[in-house]
Specification:
TIM Barrel, 12 helices, about 30% helix, elongated
Length: about 500
């Protein structure tokens, strides 16, 4: 064949690429069988047997080459596993080590560290949380010797259970703040002239007063007003926590009998201020009683200890007193009014029992003051039975908070319940600027409506500012009056002949 290549040249090319020179050359397979010819050819011609001895295809061990590749791939996989295992070990070791560092250390080391610290440290024991009662267990009269706040005083027991030979005057409040009140064996301790000292109490740890007597230093102590009428047994009946007020057989009502007499000019606009939250702090309560004018009314917290003694002391100084009535707020249970609170999910009978419980904590009050209750007072079904019970017992009701959805005062105006509504809180912020601004608003409202009622807290800045502000009222043709002097009565069977919208004379 003239067009074929020289077989000798092809042989020489193959002979120059021996397996020993390049054992891994995969291109030898390209010179394999010619699929089109169907026979073994190189350049198209057959090989001679003697000419193929030098090629020795057996020396091209393809199986060994594949094994070599497999061994090389296996080695790479092993290296990856080793690296991965080492990294995983380092991570686990780091996590375990960090945990030992965080959780390590003994209490002895921490105590030694605290002792060596140059910063002074104070530690105190948190009192054990007492078991709270609920439901009707709360309203059961406490047993004899009980330390509960609801335990009535000796005088209160006598009033609730009259005995032969008892003199009602024996249960009268003290003539001076230093004397025992309401017949109690122990009266609250007197306010000290210097800062209150820290003290320790077994089981309670370190006791530190929230307000010290030094905070009220510089505020003049006023001459005590005339002591108010003593509680009468004829105007009370036994209740779950003590004597509960009631209308007398002769028609007399507690809110009139126990009210502070108003002798001011009835033609001038009246301003009434009620200090709330009293009884919880001994020092602030003493300051309110002794350093505020007697025309200012005082409302006591039902959870205060010895609240009956505080009420008796305040009345002996000429202050009208009320009891704060806790009610369910709109953000309950975030804001908790306590276990005595009236709630919308209770039936009327149970709420009335709680009302009687709060009323019976101390004798001599003229009425109740709404405490919280932004949800309760919006429910007519819940509030109406309470207001009717207050009216039937000869007491007055003072509402607080926004009047937009407050149905309490609106319902009270239809059932002949003596009522008053606070229009603002003087110390919504305990600063002179806020107090001064709110007192100016109060003056404007009093001039416009002929009367105005406001609330305040016994903060040192509030007592100090109001004590001076009261002295400016005569020049403004305004007069300070107790809250009973601005009570309104309207609706069916009005008592006393007062006209709707006019304060009590």
């Amino acid at each position: 064949m003239a067009d074929d290549d020289d077989p000798e040249e092809d042989f020489d090319d193959i002979d120059g690429e021996s397996p020993a020179d390049d054992p891994g050359d995969d291109d030898l397979g390209d010179d394999g069988p010619d699929e089109e010819a169907g026979e073994n050819t190189v350049g198209g011609d057959d090989f001679e047997a003697d000419e193929s001895d030098d090629l020795d295809l057996d020396d091209l061990d393809f199986s060994d080459e594949e094994d070599f590749d497999d061994d090389e791939g296996g080695g790479v996989d092993k290296k990856k596993l080793i690296v991965l295992g080492a990294g995983l070990f380092l991570i686990v070791a780091g996590v375990v080590g960090s945990g030992m560092i965080i959780l390590g250390g003994s209490d002895d080391e921490e105590e030694a560290e605290e002792r060596s610290s140059p910063i002074p440290m104070v530690s105190m024991a948190i009192p054990r949380k007492s078991k709270m009662k609920s439901g009707r267990e709360l309203l059961k009269p406490p047993s004899a010797g009980s330390k509960s706040v609801a335990r009535p005083t000796t005088a209160a027991k006598k009033m609730g259970r009259p005995q032969a030979g008892n003199n009602p005057a024996a249960s009268a409040p003290p003539a001076s703040p230093s004397a025992p009140s309401s017949g109690s064996q122990q009266a609250p301790r007197q306010m000290t002239t210097g800062p209150a000292q820290m003290r320790t109490k077994p089981g309670a740890g370190l006791i530190m007063p929230s307000v010290t007597a030094a905070s009220y230093r510089g505020i003049p102590v006023l001459k005590g007003g005339r002591a108010l009428a003593s509680p009468e047994a004829k105007l009370s009946e036994p209740g779950p926590s003590g004597p509960v007020p009631r209308t007398g057989d002769d028609g007399r009502q507690a809110w009139r009998v126990y009210a502070s007499p108003f002798t001011g000019d009835t033609s001038q606009p009246r301003i009434s201020i009620i200090f709330t939250g009293l009884g919880l702090s001994r020092i602030s309560t003493m300051a309110a009683i002794k350093q505020l004018p007697p025309e200012i009314s005082l409302s006591f917290n039902p959870y205060a200890k010895s609240v009956a003694d505080w009420v008796g002391m305040a009345r002996s100084a000429g202050h009208e007193t009320l009891m704060s009535l806790p009610m369910e707020p709109s953000n309950f249970p975030l804001s908790d009014p306590g276990p005595y609170a009236l709630q919308t999910d209770m039936d009327a009978a149970e709420n009335i029992e709680r009302l009687k419980f709060v009323m019976g904590l101390a004798p001599g009050n003229i009425g109740v003051l709404q405490m919280m209750g932004s949800r309760f007072v919006t429910s007519e079904q819940a509030i109406r039975p309470i207001l009717e019970e207050i009216r039937n017992r000869g007491m007055m009701f003072v509402g607080s908070g926004p009047a937009d959805n407050n149905r309490a005062v609106k319902i009270a105006s239809t059932i002949a319940l003596p009522r008053a509504g606070a229009v603002l809180k003087i110390d919504s912020e305990a600063s002179r600027v806020t107090i001064n601004r709110n007192l100016a608003k109060l003056e404007v409202l009093a001039q416009k409506n002929k009367y105005a009622v406001a609330l305040a807290e016994p903060y040192p800045v509030t007592i100090s500012y109001i004590s001076r502000w009261v002295q400016t009222l005569p020049s403004k043709k305004l007069i300070l009056a107790p809250v009973s002097a601005v009570a309104q009565i309207s609706g069916m069977a009005t008592a006393g002949g007062e006209q709707e919208g006019q304060p009590k004379k």
